[in-house]
Amino acid sequence: MEKIFKYIFIILPLLLIIGCNKGIVPNSVEEEQQKAGFSGTITFKGVWPDSVKNTILIVFKDPLNSPASFNVFNVGYISHPIPYGITEFNFSTIADSGFVPIQAGTYSYIAIVQSKKAALSLNRADWNVAGIYYADGDTSQPGKLDIPQNTIVKNVNIICDFNNPPPQPPGGNQ
Predict the structure, then answer these.
(1) Among 161, 159, 169, 172, which residue's Cα sits nearest to residue 132?
(2) CA 137, CA 104: separation in Å to the nearest integer?
(3) How far apart are CA 173 and CA 170, in angstroms?
(4) Measured distance CA(12)–CA(46) in Å, rounded
(5) CB atoms within 10 A of CB 147
(6) Are 51 and 165 in contact (CB under 8 A)?
(7) Considering only CA atoms, which of 142, 119, 145, 120 is closest in space to residue 131?
(8) Cα–Cα distance, 16 to 103 (Å, whole number)
């Protein structure tokens, strides 16, 4: 009997050590450290169009070279709606996991899109692009965004200038 207790006192601590490889850490802290995403500021310049009913941040894996590129299989992230009429909006894909949560990877088109419809739609004709993410100030083409595993990329900033909108991808309202 004494040998059994001896083994229990040796095995039990070993099981606890193996089971708690990172010690006692709340799940939310551990999960937060393992998430990938991005954050930044969206700046709105000019007067918001009265017809806008829905504004979101949307991310596409591949470039939008045709109306067919605007599809659910190409979507990497869709935020919850951005409040109407604001001048600045700080966002984080960790704080707002959105309708479609972001994953680590490379993304080719990050934009603020607006719709005259209140309901979320992936019909390209329902959306106007109000702002695009440009990397390193190069406004000649949309910026690519690389999100490594377990990393939050910061300063992904987008300007929406209602007086000078960006080029619209194919298939939308011009």
Answers:
(1) 159
(2) 23
(3) 9
(4) 65
(5) 22
(6) no
(7) 142
(8) 32
Tokens of 81: 């709606």
- Give the span between the Cα atoms of 44 and 172, in whole angstroms: 21
d(CA 145, CA 42) in angstroms, rounded, equals 16
pLDDT, tens digit, 9 for 90 and up, residues 44-75? 999 999 999 999 999 999 999 888 888 889 99
Unique residue bearing structure tokens 């994953």? 103
Q: What is the DSSP string of 9-23?
A: HHHHHHHHHHHTTT-
Q: Which two tokens stand for residue 23?
A: 């010690």
C-alpha–C-alpha distance, residues 167 and 131, integer Å: 9
Closest CA to 97 of 35, 42, 159: 35
Say how far apart CA 48 and CA 77 lie, in whole Å. Answer: 24
Distance of CA 104 to the CA centre of its chain: 10
Give this prediction's pTM: 0.78
Dump pLDDT digits (tens) for 3-15.
Answer: 443 444 444 443 3
Residue 137 burial (C-beta neighbours within 10 Å; 0-12, 13-18, 19+): exposed
